[in-house]
Amino acid sequence: MKALIAVLPGDGIGPEVVGQGTRLLRAVAERFGHSFEMAEVPMGGVAIDLTGSPLPAETLALCQRSDAVLLGAVGGPKWDPPAKVRPEQGLLELRKALGLYANLRPVAPFPALYDASSLKPEVLRGVDLLVVRELTGGIYFGEKRRDEHQAFDACVYTVEEVVRVVRAAASLARTRRKRLTSVDKANVLETSRLWRAVTERVVREEFPDVELKHLLVDACAMHLIKRPVDFDVIVTENMFGDILTDEAAMLSGSIGMLPSASLGADRRGLYEPIHGSAPDIAGRGVANPYGTLLSVAMLLRHSLGLEQEARQVEAAVAASIEAGALTADLAPSGTRPMGTQEIGTAVLARLGERH
Ligand SMILES: NC(=O)C1=CN([C@@H]2O[C@H](COP(=O)(O)OP(=O)(O)OC[C@H]3O[C@@H](n4cnc5c(N)ncnc54)[C@H](O)[C@@H]3O)[C@@H](O)[C@H]2O)C=CC1
Ligand SMILES: CC(C)CC(=O)C(=O)O
Ligand SMILES: [Mg+2]
């Protein structure tokens, strides 16, 4: 098949991990007979430096006419406050402009990495959960104000915004173990009370075969560590999903492991690891690229409809991890950690093998 893929490396370790992602996409195209055109454009801090805007018009236009977007990460100390324009704002605008309201973040720890997690193997065994994070509403997108005395961030959700993400999450639960946990703070927040009521109604009326439970976000943070195997699909609002998935990443041993797919009404999606630009390790070639490589698998599956190729990528990643191809964030002490590029090579070597 032919596809146009917009590539937005961004800042910090973004270019390092995305470099392995595009290498993998080229290998998939070659081995499985596809034609992927990849167009790289500036986004985030590098785009501010080049154009004054974190999301230049040409970058957005390319994303809008692409079949999929692959992104690294944006941000870094160079653009931290008091800078007026922030790289992260460009990412929020991109998600909004593309209508990507459902952010899928799967967490399925690899057995070979149980030792890299601080949790016990018996807690991790069998964990396979999916967080569906609402991505274009809530406090990140509400009105913001600040003067010398106070600051204000509004959290707003409409019924329609809740309905569409709950439908997406419940539909996904249907393809899995049919268990949905909705996470909110309905004991305190009005937006959460709306969220809970709408979720109840949508699931009861449209997904009677899906079992729905509600959890308060603080308790959910605890249960994710105590009994992660009990979760199937979690649906939650923007900020709660952002925070809970950084926590859940530690089940897999490192934040560098988790991929994500941001989806909307059509097939075009944005794919990125869940981590940030990691300025503390940027430029050293040591960043873990697995979250990006697994995001490539999600891109192949959700935007290009290439399920077999997606599985091949996931199998190649699993085989590499099994063989001990690990970066410094995961490698056991006393073993030599591999660099970002070496991991990419290890995965390519296993692509297309019978697994
Ligand atoms: N989607 C995006 O573009 C995101 C951007 N950010 C931005 O990134 C910048 C740094 O944010 P932090 O809070 O430090 O979060 P971060 O996720 O960049 O880093 C947190 C810690 O995890 C480590 N880490 C992250 N990714 C890794 C990888 N692939 N391999 C090995 N170690 C990895 C880092 O070295 C650091 O110690 C900030 O400007 C923030 O706004 C943060 C989260 C998401
Ligand atoms: C700009 C931020 C909301 C990025 C982030 O932390 C995320 O999407 O995980
Ligand atoms: Mg985050």
UniProtKB/TrEMBL annotation:
Gene Ontology molecular-function annotations: 3-isopropylmalate dehydrogenase activity
Involved pathway(s): Amino-acid biosynthesis; L-leucine biosynthesis; L-leucine from 3-methyl-2-oxobutanoate: step 3/4
Chain sites annotated for binding NAD(+): 276-288
Broad EC category: oxidoreductase
Database matches in PROSITE patterns: IDH_IMDH
Catalytic activity as recorded in UniProt: (2R,3S)-3-isopropylmalate + NAD(+) = 4-methyl-2-oxopentanoate + CO2 + NADH
Residues in Isopropylmalate dehydrogenase-like domain copies: 4-347
Sequence positions that bind substrate: 95, 105, 133, 218
Residues the UniProt record annotates as site (Important for catalysis): 140, 185
UniProt function note: Catalyzes the oxidation of 3-carboxy-2-hydroxy-4-methylpentanoate (3-isopropylmalate) to 3-carboxy-4-methyl-2-oxopentanoate. The product decarboxylates to 4-methyl-2 oxopentanoate.
Entry-linked NCBIfam families: leuB (TIGR00169)
Family: Belongs to the isocitrate and isopropylmalate dehydrogenases family. LeuB type 1 subfamily.
Protein name from the UniProt record: 3-isopropylmalate dehydrogenase
Organism expressing this protein natively: Stigmatella ashevillensis
